[in-house]
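step=predict obj=Patellin-3-like n=570
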Amino acid sequence: MADQELLLTDVPLAEKADWKDLPLLPEPAEKEPFNAATLPQGDVATATEAEVLKSGDGVKLTADVDFFKEESTKVADLSDSEKKALEEFKQLIQEALNKFEFTSPPPSLPAKVEDTVSEAVVEKTEEPIDDALKLSNKEEPLKSEAKVSETNEDKGVENTEKSNETTPPAAEKVLVAVKTETAVDDDGAKTVEAIEETVVAVAVSATAPSEEGVDKNAANSEPTSAAPEEVSIWGIPLLADERSDVVLLKFLRARDFKVRESFAMIKNTIQWRKDFKIDELLEEDLGTDLEKVAFMHGSDKEGHPVCYNVYGEFQNRELYQKTFSDEEKRQKFLRWRIQFLEKSIRKLDFTPGGVCTIVHVNDLKNSPGLGKWELRQATKDAVQIFQDNYPEFVARQVFINVPWWYLAVNRMISPFMTQRSKSKFVLAGPSKSAETLLRYVTAQELPVKYGGMSKDGEFETCDSVTEITMKPSAKHTVEYPVTQGCVVTWEVRVVGWEVRYGTEFVPSQEGGGGGGYTVIIEKPRRVVAASDPVLSNTFKTSEAGKLVLSLHNPTSKKKKLLYRFKTKSL
């Protein structure tokens, strides 16, 4: 199938579309709300049907939606309802900090133990009471005091043994009281009264200490409540300055400004970070085996850092086995991916108006595809974590070298995606990948392997690149003025090449140097696509003139021409 490009533009994002739209693996997005594990979701809008435009090299798919524009991170730019939600959110967080809700351990069980003790006292006291009542109702005359004492002593011993096994010390006090009262009084009813009074007294004495303890604990906790706990996320306190507002806005937007849901999300995130030991993970050495799988390189035209995810690296069987062969290795991959994201986030600017999102370029060239279960599962786990704990960090998702089947799947699931989600998606087939990336990333920031000119060498990122579109079957020349006595260095690239290229130096007529003859630096030749993508050269001259690059595009397609120059004095 011919190379295709699907360009999906922007609208407000649903709660769950942020990381779900960013599969670490070429796996179609699922039909679930924003919180794939919980990201909030707004209304699901039906996608506009793509237009099919027949062109020379195949089919181009475009969606009739607007390009994505990030929401402001400045409080002053928020609507009144959004400002109100932010204030309510901050109040909830302040209350939670005052109560130590973010870091306090699970509640202990002293209250339950106390209840158990009380129940045990009641159970053990019922038996002697019933025995006493039986004695009072008997028709036979009461036996002598000695015999009654003896009987009750025996019962007391038995009950004491039982209570020693199952009842706390408080129960023993009850039984001793029963024995004493029976020995003193002959009247069974009186005995019962004495027992009841004793039981009440003991029960009160058993609970009294715990109440005092509660009062003491409350008194001790009063000074603590005056100093709220301090909780930070991504190195920024939850309530400190303007940067805190930027962080809180991410959670609010992830939940469509629903305060309670946003609070639950940030609370769960903080607990997850604690359980996952993020601070320790940042210091952990996980090796360099996966440094080519995901890496940061340069920025886009709006200043967002760009992350490249290269799935084709997993075609290396040794690397694949080393990364996914068992559960332990998959967990290590997950930790590495989270560590990589955490380090990337720490470099963002959380000041209002600053750049605090990342552009992701997902290269599907030679991707293992959906057949690799281990990779799919690891990716799914990572995406789930990102959705739940890293809201609103994706500025745009650009998928390049997309196979035809992926485009087809995307068209099928498009109606189930929110408009905001689709607005962050850009998909391009192999022949359109470089051209698509150059829309969002300048040539000097784009790696050579992806159609740019960013590489180690004479030039740096600050040396801008000129971009020109060459018409089909047309010639194009680039002239660069050269002053007397200097060294000129240049780089030139045509995306996809298949172009004739040559270079020459033409002396200035006023200079008279070299007898006014043109100097051929590089003879015109055909440069094929398989050639070195970036051609560079140097020319030293003692006279003024101009450097001329001559290019001829014999094909029927437009070509993107990139070039830059630099001069040094002799």
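step=describe
The radius of gyration is 39 Å.
step=end
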